[in-house]
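pinned: reference chain
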Amino acid sequence: MIDSYVELVRRRLEDRSGNIMANLEKLGDWHLRFTMRIFGDCLDEEERAKLLGGYTEYWTEKELRAFAKEFVPAYTEYAVAELLEKKKEGERFFPPFLTQEEYQEMAIREKWPKITEHLEDVTPLQLRREVARMGMLFRPYMLSDPGFNEGVLEFALYFDLLDRVAGVSVGDLRDCAREVAPLVQSAVAAKSIGECEKILARIRTAVAKVAGLPADPEMLLGPEMERYPREAPPGWKLRELRLTLETMSLKDLRLSALVHMDILTTEEVREIVSPFMTRFPSFYEIPGNALRELILAVVESVDDRLITYFFDRYLTGRMAMTKPVSFLVWKLMPEEERLRLLSEDNARMDSAMMSRHLARFLHASSPGDLGDAGRQISLLTDENFVSNHGSILKGRGGDGDSEGVRRLYDEVTVLALRIFSSGEGEKQKIFDTIRGKITEAAGLPPDPTEEGK
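pinned: its structure tokens
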């Protein structure tokens, strides 16, 4: 019989830890990193430095799992100790007697009246967390959703906001909290969704101001569970690749080699790949060890390219050929400046690379397909894809004009950028316009993916 709140929560914490540990081998990269994010967001600064010192989201799944084996029990011990300390004089549920897990579990509408009533008792770290969360209050339902606090941890934007407010004085953060608190009450009391959304926008504006963001944070929301920080530590990409290559079969090594060759210009293929090709009768006779050497040679020469960057760049600023632009800077950048940088990126490509990119548009049914690495990799062994980019390369339907591909690619660049500034109803229309331009310019049938079937 459990006769106290403390004993109930203690048992829950320990049961949760036991469940995670029992299923640790089943957890993949996403869940492992999210586990560390959830628990890390409930650590004070001293314990965070101790328990998460040296941790990086760029570890392999095996390394993440090994870390979690030590981290989860250690965190649970910390959470239980905090619980016992906060409730030693009774079950009080307001600052400074709230545990960090209790802050994480409470809905906004329940938590913020407690925060504002006892603002001086909220620790600076917890205040930073709560202010950062309010910058991500995008929809009315989030006011009542107890899962909101964990949900924001899926997005790098939360950590961007947290980093930005780390340099803000406690006094300014409290002023921000005092501005936000009555707005929360008004949002909760709003009579319609539209009225509530207007108030939520004012809350985000207050957070953006204190965080030094010149725009609504909603504009800056990126993909779920992208690694943070967004830039990998020096050498990590190559290190991770070496470990992955050692586990690959010969068939997978060949596909990986094709993927890495696809991100090269023709001149780069001559410089980097040709020395390997001349040692063997054909690509399909290159043994595993040589394929590993080839792949590593490509990455050591061009260490910041991925097969999806030709399209990802429109949303994130991760260019296909040139230096990446900071995600936040890119999202706040005027369209004409984005186009200038995209044009500079285009200028570093050759016609063969641009033709491959254009053919990828033809083999996608929606913009989302272009950012799907698995789908893009599968095209490398698709005969229609090879045929289509060959047709495009011939000069926009065989007119012999090598600059024709470049002009077409520049037109597509303008339209592709427009996809991400358009409403949901317009995105597909623009995408279909792009596909139409490519098929018409290259003299291909309306659905070139059916060619030869």
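why pinned: Residues 272 and 301 are 8 Å apart (CA to CA). The mean pLDDT is 94.
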